Amino acid sequence: MKLAVVKEWAARYYVIYGKKPFKRFEVFKPLIFLGDTMSRVGKSPINIPNGVDVKIQGNLVAVKGPKGALNWNHPEGMKISLEDKRIVVERQADTKLHRSLHGTTRSIIASMVNGTSAGYERVLEITGVGYRAQVQGQRINFTLGYSHPIEFQLPDGISAEVDKKQVQLTLRGIDKQLIGQVSANIRSLRPPNIYKGKGIRYTGEVIKLKVGKTGK
Length: 216
What we know:
The chain is built from five helices and 13 strands. By secondary structure, it is an alpha+beta fold.
């Protein structure tokens, strides 16, 4: 942060608390407690890539791209506008609620733009002897060491495929929240075992294994 800004907040701190700030955090106390903060995420405009069409009608934000279309009703108190192939998110009040929603609103719209233009992908790994998955349309059949197979129905907008060994499952979709929730639901069918690591995990997920008990 620029030195001039730090000096300004230090001066305001002295006026409010009657002493000079002696810690870096206290320099920013006026900024935090007086409500003068502005979301760094929220104030960043969203660039609209080629091939993506954005329409704003009241609280409805409609985004259409090569991968599909998404609609979302943004919360009250947020102002969404289009400026030169960019989406600008502003808050109409400076209350605690509006400050908390500012960055969230911007992130959700940015995810919609990215999802409809490039899409999202989540990869899950199945570890364990005999553990596997088979995809049949919008249905996935899992063999996860139980006495019976597990059938998982994919929601609309999510597709899946497995590798030749049937141990790596790839999910694709345009809705970031939906694909994340579906991935979590699939992982919960057989979470990784804390002793041997058997189960379903995200690619790149690190499992800290416990040491098993040893006999005397």
